[in-house]
Amino acid sequence: MGSIFSLSFCLMFCLALTSGCEMISNTEILSIDFSSTALSPGSWYVSCYDGENEQVILLDGDEKKFCLTLEKNTPAGILVYPVNEGWKERPLGALYPFQNEITETGGFVAYIADRLYRGSENGCDSSRDYLARFNWPSFIALCEQSSDPWELDSERIIFAIASGRFKKSDVKRLKK
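The structure assignment produced for this chain is given below.
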C-alpha cells in the first residue's frame, strides 16, 4: 500500500511539475497580420533576430500573415522585406515587444536593433541584456517624428546606442 501511495504521489508530482513548465514558459507565439499595408510585391522575406535566434519566413506576395516564436520581453527586430524580381526593398517592421504593428517606422527601428545585435562583439547575452535596458519607447517616439525615418543617419544612431551614449540629438537626418 505504501509503495502505491508513493508511486501515485510521484506521478502526481511529475504531472504538476511538467504542466507547470508550460505556465512559466519564457516564449510567446506572436501572430502577425500586416494586411493593412498597400504594398503588393512579388513576395515577402521576413527576418526576425533577437541576438541569439534567427527566424526566416518566405511568403507569397498576397500573403500578409505569419507567426513567430519569441522570447518574452526580449527585444527582437521583425523585418518584413517586400521582394520584387529578386531584390529586397526597404523593409517594413516592428520591434517586439514595443510595437504591435508592421510599419515603415517600425522597419527602421527593427533594422537598428538587428544591426546592433549582429554587430555586437560582446556576445549575445551581453547585447541582449544591454538592448533590453535601452529606452526603446523613447527612441521609437523620436523616429515617429520624422516624415521618413529612413532618411535618418542610421550609422550615427547605431554607434551612439552601442557606445552607451545615445542622446536625442543623435537622431539626425543624413547629410546630403
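Interim note for the steering committee: The two ends are 84 Å apart (CA to CA). Confidence is low (pLDDT under 50) at residues 3-22.
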